[in-house]
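Box 3.1 A note on notation
Throughout this textbook, protein chains are presented in two layers. The first layer is the amino acid sequence; the second is a token string describing backbone geometry. Keep the layers aligned when reading.
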Amino acid sequence: MAVLVEPFASVYDDRSCLGVILARGSGGFEAYAADDHSLGLFPSPRKAAAAITTTRPWVAHTTAEDKPERSQLPSPTNIQVL
């Protein structure tokens, strides 16, 4: 029988989910990257989050200069559904 486990926390960079952290009781906290591979067990949720953000440094360390301005993003009113 499969046991469903709810995430302890999700790690985001803006609107991009980088991964999730699962509480494993006395085992600590397990970090998973967004592609669902385990990054290992960590003693604290902070260390698990650090592992998630360092696996994808090009996402975690983007600057405001790299991100488009809100005015450049497509407006929901301009999107056509075919």
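The longest helix spans residues 45-55. The chain is about 20% helix and 30% strand.
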